Amino acid sequence: MTSNIPVHEDCVKHFNDMKINKKYGYVIMAIRHQKEVVIEETGEPFPADCTQRENEEVFNRLRKKILAHELEPKYLLFDFKLETRDGRREKIAFINWCSDNCSINKKMVQASTAEALKKLFQGVSAHIQTNDADELEYREIAKEVGRKK
């Protein structure tokens, strides 16, 4: 099932600029007025020498911002910088945030629109659904992102 909510062309453009040109460290999107998915905020690209800890600090600031408006679902593209036993990994994750406390209608629209976005964002390393604050923890998401090839 799809929501038939259009995705503004800037969302795909920003994703491609993030993936190919390393222009953004993150992109936050949301459905506005039940009419269209739009970009709310973008972040500067992470420096080449960005550590996982610095990456986590940026994510945690975004997490606080998202949780401060818990009933407003968001989509987040985030450029994870992971330090693994095999070396450094850089992976873009698509995170769908929709609180368990949102209305059933919001949850349905958010989920079906997320499916449409997944098809547009080719090359994302992980698609992650989060519904409560514990699921939106950097370490939890990084574990999932790190498992993806």
Strand share of the residues? 25-35%
Q: Kindly report how far apart the N and C termini lie.
A: 28 Å
Major sheet: arrangement of strands: 2-1-3-4-5
What's the shape? globular
Helix content range: 25-40%
CATH superfamily: Severin
The radius of gyration is 15 Å
Q: How many domains make up the 3D coordinates?
A: 1
Largest sheet: 5 strands, mixed
Helix and strand content put the structural class at: alpha+beta
Tell me what the CATH architecture is: 3-Layer(aba) Sandwich
What does the average pLDDT come to? 93
Number of strands: 5
CATH class: Alpha Beta
Number of helices: 4
**SSE ordering:** HEEHEEHEH
Any low-confidence stretches, pLDDT <50, length ≥5?
none
SSE map:
Layout: H1 9-19, E1 26-32, E2 36-43, H2 52-68, E3 74-84, E4 87-97, H3 104-120, E5 126-130, H4 138-147
Parallel strand pairs: 4-5
Antiparallel strand pairs: 1-2, 1-3, 3-4
Key descriptive features of the protein:
Severin; 149 residues; alpha+beta; globular; single chain; 4 helices; 37% helix; five-stranded mixed β-sheet
